[in-house]
Amino acid sequence: MTSSKANRRGNGTRTAGRRWKAALAVVAGWWFRLVPHFQAAAQPRDPERGDVPGWVMITLMSAILVAGLLLLVQPALERLFESAIEQVQP
Fold this sequence. Notes:
This protein has helices spanning 3-42, 54-86. It is mainly alpha-helical. The mean pLDDT is 78.
């Protein structure tokens, strides 16, 4: 194995670690912004206001599911894209 391939593998591992940390930071930011809203919805100031609508929860859960799946399949999608671009003849 050449040193450039070894360097690429090492950098890829570090890059993947940074991606996970960045993704975790984004999810944590969303979570800490949403918690007060959920707490406010659980104890509404106006008794006639009601609870969080079901469609809001479904949308939120769908967004989290898509983000999670994207984190899992992103490296495969990147490899697929790169191999397709390499096959293009100028």
